[in-house]
Structures are given as structure tokens and as C-alpha cells.
Write a structure and sequence with these properties.
mainly alpha
Length: 82
């Protein structure tokens, strides 16, 4: 957080869900690839690794369009090991 407060730019990963779909993971109806981490974890892990290899220092989760569901379901932390 100090780096951010100091005005330093920190590169995060990009359109993870889009990359997962590009690599062949089918879209889940009304979920946009939020389930890809469960159905295709190796592909998701590789997409994150690709972003890290390109210089990303922060990797975020694929929660686009599913964030409201966080209030409706218990959450388990999943740690991807690279």
C-alpha cells in the first residue's frame, strides 16, 4: 500500500475471463466464466501466470458480474500456487 500512496504505478493482471474464454473454456450462462476456476483451474492458473510473466504484480479474481453473489454464499479462499 505504501507504493500506491507514494504514487507508484503497480501493474495488475488484465481481462482474465476473456483470456480464459479465448483458451477454450465455455461461457457459463449468466456467469461469464466465474466458474472457470472450478471447471478449468489449470487454464485459469496459466492465464494468471502469463500475466505475471508479462510483469503483473497483482493478480485479481474472476468475479466480474458475480460480485453480488458474494453476499449470498459462503466464500472459501483458494490459493493458486505458481
Amino acid at each position: 500500500m505504501k507504493r500506491v500512496r507514494d504514487g507508484e504505478c503497480i501493474l495488475i493482471d488484465g481481462a482474465t475471463g476473456t483470456e480464459v474464454e479465448r483458451k477454450g473454456v465455455p461461457q457459463l450462462k449468466n456467469a461469464w466464466n466465474g466458474g472457470a476456476a472450478l471447471s478449468h483451474p489449470d487454464i485459469v492458473r496459466q492465464v494468471h501466470q502469463d500475466y505475471i510473466n508479462l510483469g503483473a504484480e497483482i493478480v485479481i479474481s474472476i468475479l466480474f458480474q458475480r460480485i453480488s453473489m458474494l453476499y449470498l454464499m459462503p466464500i472459501k479462499a483458494i490459493t493458486l500456487k505458481f
